[in-house]
Amino acid sequence: MTIEVRNLVKQFGSFKALDGVDLKVDNGELLALLGPSGSGKTTLLRIIAGLDWPDSGEVSFNGEDALAQGARERNVGFVFQHYALFRHMTVFENVAFGLRVQPRASRKDEPTIRARVKELLDLVQLDWLADRYPSQLSGGQRQRIALARALAIEPRILLLDEPFGALDAKVRKELRRWLRSLHQEINVTSIFVTHDQEEALEVANRVVVMDKGRIEQIGSPDDVYESPATAFVHGFIGESIELPVQVEGGVIRLGDRPLNLAVDGLVSGASKLFVRRHDMLVGPPGSGAFEGAVQHVRNFGPVQRAEVALSGGETIEIDAPRDRELRAGDTIGLKPRRYRIFAG
Amino acid sequence: MTMQIADSVSLPSTDARARAHAVAARDSLRTEPPAIRIAIIAMAVIFLSVFVVLPLVLVFAQAFSRGVLAYFSALAEPEALAAIKLTLIVAAISVGLNLVFGLVAAWAIAKFEFSGKTFLITLIDLPFSVSPVISGLVFVLLFGAQGYFGSWLRDHDIQILFAVPGIALATTFVTFPFVARALIPLMQEQGTQEEEAAISLGASGLQTFFRVTLPNIKWGVLYGVLLCNARAMGEFGAVSVVSGHIRGETNTMPLLVEILYNEYQFVAAFAIASLLAMLALITLIAKTVLERHLDEGHDASDH
Amino acid sequence: MGLTLSWLSIIILIPLAGLFLKSLELSPEQFWNILSSRRTLNALRVSFGLAFAAACVNLVMGSIIVWALVRYRFPGRRLFDAIVDVPFALPTAVAGVALTALFAETGWLGAPLAALGIKVAFTPIGIFVAMIFIGIPFVVRTVQPVLQDLDPEIEEAAGSLGASRWQTIIRVILPSLGPALLTGLALAFARAVGEYGSVIFIAGNLPNVSEIAPLLIVIRLSEFRYADATAIAVVMLVVSFVIIFAVNRLQRWAQSRIPAR
């Protein structure tokens, strides 16, 4: 199943949740919608599911107009952030729900339904919980039951809204790996929404970074991390140092001080310089593009994180390898191994 | 507007019907078709109008059916004035008693753990679910001529039944749950941290109560008192059993309504009834206002 | 604490204990004879039977009212929401005379109904009507908060799994409201069984036909037949206890199904 979204606009009152979104999802993909809260990612997911409707724009599944169908005809599996399990039903009945409410003509007989539910509970490795009620399960178990319930209707698309948002860190990590292997097993076109970059980069084949109702970048996890397309993406993904600079005639200035860095591209005027923390190389004073005094040093395993007051007045944090110990009070030179400059 | 036009032009015409269908599908996910919606609203409104609004309107219509003059002269009858006075006295006594003990009961239940707590809560609720006639009956059994304390009371020349004390006791019994019930959830929610903080800062028990506990629950107290008062003034069944219906002496307003109605003095009966109905309406309005206050307090403690 | 308990004992326990003590003075045989007399049995039948029927009407109409108040927006919604409490706040004697005047053969509703050959006031139907009146707030106010707090996502989940609106209501929403609906039913029933003031005016009070149990207690008291009054009261009280107990259990059970977040 391919999904195509064209020029989607959705407004809630004066708030633009989606501001012209275009997106193509290929068959069998596991796609992450990544962005801060209010970026429109959940709205986009709900529109694809048929739980919300756009003000304008188009959504098609395999080239068919999906907006002509309501949620219950779209055959989309949706996993809610807070699971939305039916509390008065056992785990078994929760999973069976989608099969039991099918129109009489296409409804399967009881043994088939039982077999199918059993199969799904096996798939999510929770067959031993069939007779429990949702309130008797842990968060991670509820999440997996919600997934099994969504898969019961053999959905053409699987949509997950912050699937791990309500879980604690350890369970979250386990479930991430599990979701990826499950996706390989069932191979249904899947989209999940998250605000956690680590989650998006670790689980998805492709990541869509959104901000303020617009798509900032679409690419593989490596793409969005290694070559961010916009200032927002660079700032949002990975730990970045962000410095306000002036670009004039091929010279970059931080405050009054010209930086010994090359400018590629067409940027000029007030701009932003982005460097990953671990891409700042430490050298003797005068050797790099920046100079500064070390304020604080803390050690994190293989790296030391130093707070450096640049001579331009800015204070930045860098991650340096521990082969050369930094001390508070040291004056050092800094040279970015890689950097990017964005207008604005 | 321009967007809508552009939208419909760009749409292939075969999709138009499918989209119209989708509009219906979108609305149906969390609501019902308009016809059913209208039918449900109509049923609710008609039912409430017939069973609740109409009787209420009728009370005032009947009270004023012979004009304003007849209405006020009915209220100025000595019998009516005596009933109003007695009702106010009884309400004051029972509200006062239940205020004090409701506060204490709620405080004990909300702030302490002890065995038999569930039983205690059930006990507090009991007068709500006991027939008011039975509530009256128990006092007849205790203080009546054949009752457990009947002969002792007669020997000491103390009149409880068929007198103000009996009416006040029965009213206190049936209105007992209101204050406690209004306060228990409120005090449970607030927990004991603030009190513990006050005590750790050197406040005495009484200081803590008046400066920390009471300000936190003042709207709840008012709420409980309001409902308690409304029920106290309007109580009929229990009071009817213990009052003895002595005209001008042990008739409260609801009892007078009954007597006048049975004597076919409809204007007078409905005039008194209209006062009680007014009390009910004022109580409801005040209750709505108070609930808003309580909700605000609730929201504030959430954030 | 001691104060609370002693107060509770004085105001609630002692009177009730007195009632049971009094009933113990009766031999089982006497007790049985009182209860099995035709008039007592009929009064209990009228009270319990009509109270149950009225509670059922309240369950249905209360659900409809709650649905309209919570799910729809219509002019006067807040006013009608407030009006639901009127039967609770209006003194029962006032309700009694008002309903009687309304449904009497010359009344605003009684006259048109009489033209159709339906007599309401001074018949068992009148009792039924009064019991419906006083029971409305109990169902509405127990179910309303539960419907309000119902997670909208479970309806969306049901829809996205292919359930029709009707299936969602029957299989998801109603079962979620189940404990609240049953509680409301029980409370409305308990209130209607014991109701006196709003019923006696409209009832007609014909022994064996339209005489309610609380009225029979009052009549026996006025005849100084305390034993008879006590026996009937004990039966009603036991039923009240059972209902409260059941409601408390129901509430606890419903609580246990709410997932801890």
UniProtKB/TrEMBL annotation, chain C:
Role according to the record: Part of the ABC transporter complex (TC 3.A.1.6.1) involved in sulfate/thiosulfate import.
UniProt name for this protein: Sulfate transport system permease protein CysT
Residue ranges of domain ABC transmembrane type-1 in the record: 44-247
GO molecular function, one term: ABC-type sulfate transporter activity
Membrane topology: Multi-pass membrane protein
SUBUNIT field: The complex is composed of two ATP-binding proteins (CysA), two transmembrane proteins (CysT and CysW) and a solute-binding protein (CysP).
InterPro entries: CysT_permease (IPR011865), MetI-like (IPR000515), MetI-like_sf (IPR035906), Sulph_transpt2 (IPR005667)
Similarity comment: Belongs to the binding-protein-dependent transport system permease family. CysTW subfamily.
Record lineage: Bacteria, Pseudomonadati, Pseudomonadota, Alphaproteobacteria, Hyphomicrobiales
Keyword Zinc (UniProt): no
Superkingdom in the source lineage: Bacteria
Organism from which the protein derives: Bradyrhizobium japonicum
Transmembrane segments: 50-70, 82-104, 116-140, 169-190, 196-219, 226-247
